Amino acid sequence: MASILSTTRAVAGLSFALNIGAQVFGSLTSPSIKDVHDGHISFFSPNPYLVGAFFALMLLVHGVWLHALCTLNTRQAQDEATASGMLAYAPVFVLGNLCLAAWMLCWTAEWLRVAEAFVAINALAQAWFVLARLPLLDLRSRTSVLVHLASKVAAGLALLDLLHNGSVAFFEDSLPGTAVKVAAGLGVVVLAGGSDWVLGAAVVYGLTALAVGQRAYSEDGAWALLLGGYAVGAALVVGIKNWMR
Questions:
Q1: What are the Cα distances from residue 166, in Å, to 42, 55, 57, 117, 219?
Q2: HSE on the CB side for 24, CA within 13 Å?
Q3: Does 46 sit behind a cis peptide bond, omega within 30 degrees of 0 on the bond before it?
Q4: Calpha distance 152→126 (Å, rounded)
Q5: Are 242 and 198 in contact (CB under 8 A)?
Q6: Could you tell me which residues come within 8 angstroms of residue 232 by beta carbon, excluding any fewer than 6 positions away?
Q7: pLDDT for res 2
Q8: Under the phi-then-psi rule, with left for phi > 0, alpha for psi from -120 to 50, and beta for the rest, what region is 114?
Q9: 114: Cβ–Cβ under 8 A, 6 or more apart, which residues?
Q10: Which residue ranges in the chain fall short of pLDDT 50?
C-alpha cells in the first residue's frame, strides 16, 4: 500500500504541475489561449473570463485534493481515502491533467480538431468516474467532500470545454439551428434532473458562461436569451430537486 500510495502521489503531482505549466505557456505564448478564443467563434463560445474563473476554481479544488492525498499519514486516513474514492479518482485526475495540457498545446497551435480529441477523452473520463465510480457523498468525511468537489467541478468544466471546442472545430462562424437548440434543452433537462448541488452548480455556471459569451458574439440574440433561460431553468430544477430530498 505504501509504495502504491507513494507512486500515486508522485504521478498525480507531476501531472498537476505539467497542466499548470501548459496553462501558463498558453497564456504567455502568441497566439495566446485568448487570442485563439477570440479568433474562432461559434454558437457554443463562452465568455473567456468566466471560463478562466471556472478553470481557476478547478485548479484550486484540485490543489486541495492533491494536498490531502499527499498528507494521508495514518492507516485510518488511508482506509478512509480508499472508501471515499480518493484513490480511485487519482488515475482520472492524472489523465485529466495530461489531456488538458495536450489540449492547450493543440489549442494555441490552432489544431482545433486534434484538441477536440483530448477534450473528449477528458470529458468521458470525468463523466465515467462521476456516474460509475464515485461513492455516495459522506458530509462527515473531508476526503469524501473533496473527491466530490474535485470530480464534479472537473466534469462540469470538461463538458463546457467539449461544447466550446467542438463548436469552433467543426462549426466555426455558424449560428445554432433548431436541432442544436432542442438538443441543448434536452441535455439541460437530463443534467439538471440528475445533478446534486455541486454538479448542478457547475452546469448552471457553464450555461451562464455560454449565455454571456453568446450575447457578445452571436448575431442571434434569441440564442443568448435561450441559453440564459436554460441556466435559470437548470438552477430551479437543481434547487427544487435537492431541497426536497
A1: 9, 18, 23, 9, 19
A2: 6
A3: no
A4: 8
A5: no
A6: none
A7: 62
A8: alpha
A9: 106
A10: none
